[in-house]
Structures are given as C-alpha cells and as structure tokens.
Amino acid sequence: MKKIWQARYVTWFLLIGSILSQASIAGQVKRVDIVPPSMKIINERYHYSPAVRVGNMLFIAGQVGRDADMKVVVGKEAQLVQAFENLKLVLEEASADFDDVVEIVTYHTDMRDLALVVKVKDRYFKNRYPTWTGVGVSSLSTPGLEFEIKATAYIEQ
Fold first, then answer.
1. What domains sit in the chain, N to C, each tagged with a CATH number?
2. By C-alpha distance, which of 78, 87, 142, 151 is closest to 109?
3. What digits encode the pLDDT tens for the residues 81-115?
4. What pTM value is reported for the model?
5. What's phi and psi for 89, nearest 5 deg?
6. Cα dist. 127→98, 124, 145, 146 in Å?
C-alpha cells in the first residue's frame, strides 16, 4: 500500500513540476493568492491563503463548516453544506467553478458519514466529477468540526 501512495505522489509532483516548468519557460507563471473578502480574517489571523493560483492550477486549502463569523456550523449536513459553500466562494473568487475542480480530498471524523458526504457533494458536482479521496481522522483544527474539504482545480485560459 505504501508503494502505491508513493507512486501516486511521485506522479503528482512530476505532473505539477512539468506544468510549472512549461509555464515558466513560456514566462506565464505567477503566483496569485486568492482571499475572498469574507475570508480575509483567516489570512490575517492564521497566516495562510484560502487558495493559491499558479498558472492554470488552483490549490485550495481545506474548507470547513465555519460561517463568516468563524463560528462552527451545528449539524452534520449543515456543516457539510457550509464547507462546500466556502469552497464555492473560493472558486468564484478565482473565477472558477466546480466543473474546474479536478481533485478533492475530504477529511471525516466519522467515516460512517460517507453516504451523507456523497449526497451533499453531488449537489455541487453535477457535470464533471473530480477524483476524490476520503480520509478518516480523529479530529480537525477546531472543536466541533467534523469535515474538511481540500481541492485542486485546473482553470483553462
């Protein structure tokens, strides 16, 4: 199993390296931090960007079920919806949408919620489906959080 994961990561890093090399040679690579206005507090308080765009690639930090006031949303489905809405907000700030997402990784404090995740995810991914990895974790960054969604998108010029 370890070798499979190593091979996936090597393939992923080679792909990203190739994209960045080609774009760099063409003089097109520039890094753009994506920070929707309602997420400025995250950028200032925790010193990270909700997303970073490099060329056509958009790397989106894990989005969770917190509202604009940084309060954890109560209820599993409501929390998942809020996490996807936060992901949508970041995508829109980068002039992208769910059809541009090529990969998501979801983190769950209870893997028995997988059916619920599929149900909510399918409300957002209607035309094109990303690759998806679900990972069980014992806890997330803030007490009460049960889900986190990390994404990568490819935005065609």
1. 29-154 (3.30.1330.40)
2. 142
3. 999 999 999 999 999 999 999 999 999 999 999 99
4. 0.82
5. -60, -45
6. 9, 9, 29, 27
